Structures are given as structure tokens and as C-alpha cells.
Amino acid sequence: MSQTHHASQFTLLKQRRFAPFFWTQFLGAFNDNLFKTALIVVLTFDAASWTTLSPSIVTNLIPGLFILPYVLFSATSGQIAEKFEKSSLVRFVKWAEIVIMGIAALGWMTHSLWLLVLAVFAMGTHSTLFGPVKYSYMPQQLKPEELTGGNGMVEMGTFVGILLGQVFGDVLVMHGEMGIPVVAAATVGFAVLGLVASYRIPLTPASAPDLQIAWNPFAETVRNLKYSSGNRTVFLSMLGNSWFWFYGAMILAQFPVYAMTYLKGDHSVFVLLLTVFSLGIGAGSLLCEKLSGHKVEIGLVPFGSIGLSLFGIDLYFASQGYAVPAGTIDAAAMLAQQGSWRILFDVVMIGIFGGFFIVPLFALIQLRCDPKHLSRTIAGMNILNALFMVAAAGVAILLLGQGLTIPELFLATAIMNGLVAVYIFSLVPEFLMRFLAWLLIHTVHKVKVIESGRIPEQGAAALVCNHVSYVDAVVIMAASPRPIRFVMDHRIFKTPLLGWIFRTGKAIPIAPAKEDPWLLEKAYVDIAHALHDGELVCIFPEGRLTTTGEINEFKGGIAKIIERSQVPVIPMALRGLWGHVLSRSQDNVFERAFRKGLRSRLALAVGQPMPPDAATPEVLQQAVLELRGDWK
User: Fold this and answer.
1) Theoretical Cys-Cys bridge with 333: which of 51, 329, 503, 589, CB 3.0 to 4.6 Å?
2) Selection from 463, 465, 435 nearest residue 546 by Cα
3) Rounded to an integer, what distance in angstroms lies between the CA atom of residue 590 and that of residue 128?
4) Coil, helix or strand at residue 492
5) CATH topology for the 445-628 domain
6) CB atoms < 10 A from the CB of 373, how many?
7) Where in the chain are the domains?
8) Alpha-carbon distance 309 to 4, whole Å?
9) In this structure, what DSSP letter does residue 542 have?
């Protein structure tokens, strides 16, 4: 039996169901930022010839005008994305982009600031309409095991597009009078390229074609958020996503002044910080697929959160250790300054851990949300993102007004992130449990999952497995794409750490009839409820850990469970755990620890699902024995 093979996420770029969509969204992010950056740079360095308003008002007004449509129109755009076929909707948005960039070109050539401001608002509206389509398109075209890789590619593409757009916008417009017509032509040209790419996007049916659009955006926003809050995991993932935008806005908004005031750098130092951060996000987003084992691994979210706090705190200390030059320096000279590499390392690590944080959250929302409501859920999240970004600007102004320096603001943001993470993970312990399981199989052990695709993506099933050690459930949990309800000996719940893990994971305690008949009957009722609700339930039919390494006789309890709940039964076998420190091997515990060593090899083999009428304890025991083979 071979291990389930998963192609690399990069192979998606060769496939029509993903590549045209990827390049369409990449070109959109690139063009948005080319236009906005060119406009901000012109109004910062040549404000007098365009307007009598102060540069600081204008440079805050433009991002504000871009974000405003997210608040006003997200609820409506979410409904539109549900009601209409998605490839035609993307093409409509891309045609609109050409018109908007045409208006902007007219503004550039006639020196009309208000035409350009109108174009900024219109591009914000264009992005508001595209957002729900972008994230609801992927679950329709990608398999669940491709979602993390697909989201990673899209996040990487978006941030690289943003970065290149900002650099191009900056470079083109700095060419003085000649730069303006080049920017005007380039933005129209890239909009046309986006449209060409969109014509290759395959047909993607509407998820709710009969939906009646409610045009009141405020009432629909409230209804959307109320609906999303009904699915606790999805809603808290939305809040976690919005928190990332708060964190990012707090850090990124300070980069221009931080580069100029603290690093004594010119504009190229700001571009360097931005580049390093964007490359970090891109790398983190792409690494998610590798680290998640080709499934939606929400255990990466706490890992990302820890990194955001640690490297945010270190950015404060790195700023203190920077040797401030006497005069203004460029990016090349900044790299020669003492302490500069530590600052850049912290910025790139914040980006990488930001990728670990954001990509699994997007994938989880796409996986756990009702498909008919996904676009509206994404739209609701876009509203939350916009509000969180506005809040970030307000908090930054308040803290800086209280006399905080920018490095102190980095420190305060990192500490806030730690507190928010503790709060979110206490509300959804599944995140933390998956993190602990992920940590175990990526540090202490090297786990190979054979035929993981046999664990169903949805619907009820009973999983049965041999019982070798106290960490069996953690290994199975880490290998499964879905949460599992484990049926565990009630005594395990009394052990300090494992007891807490299994209680928070809603494991079902069970006891022998002679020891606690009431708890036994309650366990059967809880198992029946879980299976009725479409959950996965894992049972160890031996009833106790093996003391010899061999598989003990399967007890009759499994037959009673299957009789009550007619669900498919999936045999599984753990290999390589016998002799583990937490198994009941009689060998010396220290000898066992060293014999297995760090990164010891384990495997979980998943068998073919059996119909309930064929799954007797004897048949299941034989199936598990065959799956395990000679490797204990």
C-alpha cells in the first residue's frame, strides 16, 4: 500500500481551473497598488502643483477612500458573488477596471486631482466586488486537500503583486513629467492584461442562483455577521483574520516614518522594509502547504501567532541596538549599519509567521462554511477587516499621541497580539490542540500517513484503531483533516496534560461495566449523538493499551455502537509506537527513549471503509492486524 501522493501547489499554475484565476487576481493587486502608490508619491513630493491640501491629509485620505467601499458595499457584493456565475462576474469586474483606469488616465493627463480621487474610490469598489468572488471560487474548483496550497499561492501572489505594484508605482512616477503618462498608460495596459487572463477562467456555477438580493447594505451586514456567528469556529476564524489585518496595519503604517526617523534612511530603505515583509508573507504562505501535510492544518495558526508576538517584541529590541548614522543613508548603506540585519530578520519573520497565521484561517473558513453562504461570509469578513484597519489607525494615532515611539508601538502591538491569541484559543481549544498535535509529529516524531484520503471529508464514520501508547489519539488527530471525537478510558482524563487535551477536544470518557455502568451507558449515548451529528468518532476496541506490542482481542462494544448508529467503519493501524516512552513496554524507560531517538518514524495506515453490517469485531481486528503488518 503506498502513501497518498499529493502534487506540489505549484502544479496548480499549470491547470486551467487555477492559473487564469491566479494571474487575474495577481494583476489586479499589482495594478491597484501601482496606481495608489504613484498617486501618493506624486501628492507627497509634488503636492503644490495638484492641490492646496496638506500632503499628510491627502496621503491619509487616499487609503481611507480605498477602504470605504469595503464598509459600504461588501454586504451587497457578497450576495452578488453567490447569485451569479463567477467567471462572468470576474470579467465584468475586469471590464470595470479598464473603465476606471481610463478615468484615472484622463485625470493624470488633465492634472485633475478629483478625477484621480474618484478613480481611487472606484478601485476600492472594484476590489470590494472581487474579494468574495476570489475566496469562494477556490473551494468550488480545488479539492479540500488543495485548499491550503491554493490559498498559500493566492496570498503569496497578492503580496508579491502589492509589493511589485508599489515599487513600480514609485519608480515610474519619480521620472518627473515623463513618469505621469507612463503611469497612465501602464495602469490601463495592466487592466487589459487582467481582462485577457479572466477570459480563461472556467465556468464556476452560482452557489445560490435563486438568492433575492437585499440592497440595504447595513441591514445585510448585520444579518451576515449574525449568520456567521452561528458557526463558532468560522466566526472566530473571521475575527482572527481581521486581527491579522489590524496587526499588519499597525506595523506597516509605521514603516515610512520608521525608515526615515529611526533608521535615518531615504525612500529606498522604506522600499527595502516593504520588500522584506512581502517576501516573508509570500514564503510563509507557500510553506503552509508543506508544513500542513496537504490538509487544512489549523495547528499552524497558534504557531503563526507565537511568531508574530516574538518577532514583534524582538523588533523593538533590535531597534534599540541599531547604530544610527549621522546623515541620511540609502538601502545599501543601511545594510552596512550595525544592527540592520537583525531588524530585517525580524521583519521577514513577522511576514513568514503572518503567512502561517492567515493561510490556514482562510482555508478553514472555506472548508467549514456552508458553500451557499461562503461569498457573504467573506464579504462580512471584509467589512470586519476594514473596521479593524480603521481601528488600527485610530489606536496608532492615540498611542503615538501619548508619547510612544514607533519601536514602542511595535512592542505594544506584539503584546496585544499575544493577549488576543490567548483569548481566541481559549474560545476555540481546537486550534491549540491541533497545534500541540502538529508540534508532536513535527518535532518528536516523523509520521507517514498511508491512504489518508480514506478518512471521509464530511459525514459520520467510526474509526477503529489498535491501542499502543498514550499518544495514539494525538498522532491520529494530527493525521486527520477533520476533528475527531475520541472514546478514551476515563482514567486518562485524570492525567494533568493529556487529560486537559482530551477534555478540550470533547473526547468521550468510557469505563468498564463492572467499574462504572452509568458512565459506560452515557458513553454509548454520547457516541450515538456525535455520529448522528455527522462527526468522526474514533474507538480503540481493545479497551486498554497493549502490554506486549500485539493486538488484544477487540471487545463487543464496537458492535453495539455500530448497531445503534449505522455508519461506515474505517479500520486503521498505528505502526512504530511500541517501545515509545509512553507505551507499556517493560523495557527500561531511558533505554526506550534513546532507542527510539528524536524524529523516530511512525506510520498510520488507513484501511478501506466497511459497511456497518460487515464490520464485526473479529473482521475489524483482522483488518487492523493486516494494516499493521510486522512493524509494531
Assistant:
1) 329
2) 465
3) 59
4) helix
5) Glycerol-3-phosphate (1)-acyltransferase (3.40.1130)
6) 22
7) 13-206, 219-428, 445-628
8) 36
9) T
State how far the Cα of 510 lies from the Cα of 561, in Å rounded to an integer.
13
Distance in angstroms (rounded) separating the CA atoms of residues 159 and 165: 10
HSE-CB for 325 with a 13 A CA cutoff: 19
> Under a CB-based contact definition with an 8 Å cutoff, are residues 280 and 352 in contact?
yes
Query: Which CATH number applies to 219-428?
Result: 1.20.1250.20
By C-alpha distance, which of 63, 430, 55, 502 is closest to 237? 430
- Tally of CB atoms within 10 A around 262: 17
Q: Where are the alpha helices (DSSP H) in 7-54?
A: 19-45
Report the chain (632 residues): mean pLDDT per 10 consecutive residues. 54 88 94 88 68 61 78 85 90 96 93 88 90 85 82 85 86 76 94 95 87 82 81 84 89 82 83 88 82 70 89 94 84 88 95 88 80 81 85 84 88 93 75 73 71 82 87 80 84 76 80 85 90 90 81 85 88 81 56 50 85 88 86 68
Backbone angles phi, psi at 536, to 5 degrees: -90, 135
The CATH number of domain 13-206, selected from 3.30.360.10, 1.20.1250.20, 3.20.20.70, 2.40.50.140: 1.20.1250.20
* Cell 481486528 found at: 621
C-alpha grid cell for residue 139?
473551494
Cα separation, 55 vs 35, whole angstroms: 17
Torsion, Cα 172 173 176 177, to 10 degrees, reads 90
Contact yes or no for 364/233 (Cβ under 8 A): yes
Element (DSSP H or E) covering residue 341: helix 340-368
Cell of 334: 543601511
SS3 260: helix
* DSSP string over 193-208: HHHHHHTTSPP---S-
Cβ pair 239, 381 in contact under 8 A: no
How far, in Å, CA of 181 to CA of 574, rounded? Answer: 66
Same fold, 13-206 and 219-428: yes
